[in-house]
């Protein structure tokens, strides 16, 4: 048996609503998995540790555990807060040390990044972006967040990207809506995440008629995000996931709006509005999150 | 004598208005330099080749030549157009092969990137960003362009960033002005580059009273650009250069507007609006361009 494929890795998708814990291998196969709601930090981290402890007999020592977390988080290894959640609107979680308890109780190498950067790594390794090195993964769900890889490596810099809080130009048919972001009102998340759609129209997209103007407004804001990404980060692919993007009919108008916003300035066929392969759905679907955490573990394990 | 410091390198700052050609060494010292206007491609490239030929007797064989060029340019080494200017509004230059004639006539290794990415490399190596690995260099002059380094390496991806063509939200006191960008009208370049300031107010900033609202409008648009950069690319430093930024009093209000646009969401003191060291002037001043081309040569030379 090939030694490489018998190594086992832990994965924690630490979301604001639920935690997913799993054990997998280097091929991306998940061998065990559980999920539980994100309650207070103490209970949630105890549940996480118990999941791995309980499976030690079956899977043996893990080579590493990867944690993909809701942000903002501290990624600077020089910082005393490395591994912690920073100031977050989620009650009780600001300042929570995510990695410390896992390191102390489980004693294996830990990988750590944002949930969306982890998803980008998974899409790069196993999903819709295997053939490129520079990509962005954006989730559009209860919030909007994005992670970026440049040369195959995560973009961190000052902290990490927070793409959900861009300031798009308002759509001409959406000038009255104040937006729902507690920080900014009408930033992208405040205008185009799931709660914003419901606040503006009274329903989620799947309950609205295809001819509703809400579809056009949503596609315009997300197309504008994609245009901003092309201008700022120049990715070779943009992967759009999350609950709102389950509405597959959004992709085509988003591509058209991307093209329209660029105004012909970027002379690449990928942004011409008619190429399907540039703005794409996640190849891993809703599994990008937990597989992203697994990818972080693979990168954190000793060679 | 130390062999490393005796190697000589060529540098070409290929701008839309003028070309600067120089010979330098690994310390960033410039040993010879000339400049001439950018006319037609044939004449301009012939002048470039002649500069280096004429100095062969004095400096010997160059280890490499770096070319930092106005864009858009083809940076994909797999492309047949590698080394060329792509579709540009500058008459006669679309499709011009910049590297081919230099390679053929001078026969040394060539480095190639955008003028602004080259400037970012120079600021990283010798200037205002030596202590960080993730930075953005933006020039605000007759146009607006930006180059980014992530992990010390240039961001290319699909093509290269084109930050000048972002779509800022319009300032409340600037809703009538149509903007001057031939592609987009009121994109950032169309609203905040030198020609836009003159078109809106009838004068460049240095001729306007300090209490003119034009200062506030300019700082707001550039602060919005910086906020977008923090959200998308998360640089550890933003270097703002170019002719417009010779007005030093712009930096403080730009920092304040960056802070205001972020709305307290990014909990880092660097973006708190009062830290001088995050949004900074180029350490190399107007020399960032030619030293950037020299940095490209250093990276292109055999070890």
- Helix content range of chain A: 25-40%
CATH class of the largest domain in chain A: Alpha Beta
Structural class of chain A: alpha/beta
Task: Output the number of helix runs of chain A.
Answer: 10
Q: Find the count of extended strands of chain A (DSSP E, 2+ residues).
A: 10
In the predicted model, the low-confidence regions of chain A spanning at least 5 consecutive residues are none
Nearest-angstrom radius of gyration of chain A?
A: 19 Å
Mean pLDDT of chain A: 95
How many structural domains does the protein architecture of chain A include?
A: 2
SSE run of chain A: HEEEHHEHEHEEEHHHEHEH
List the helices and strands and how they pair.
Two copies of one chain form a homodimer.
Chain A: H1 3-6, E1 9-14, E2 18-24, E3 30-37, H2 41-54, H3 56-59, E4 65-69, H4 99-106, E5 110-114, H5 115-126, E6 135-140, E7 144-150, E8 153-154, H6 188-192, H7 194-201, H8 213-232, E9 237-241, H9 251-262, E10 279-280, H10 288-300
Parallel strand pairs in A: 1-4, 4-5, 6-9, 9-10
Antiparallel strand pairs in A: 1-2, 2-3, 6-7, 7-8
Helix pairs in contact in A: 2-4, 5-10, 8-9
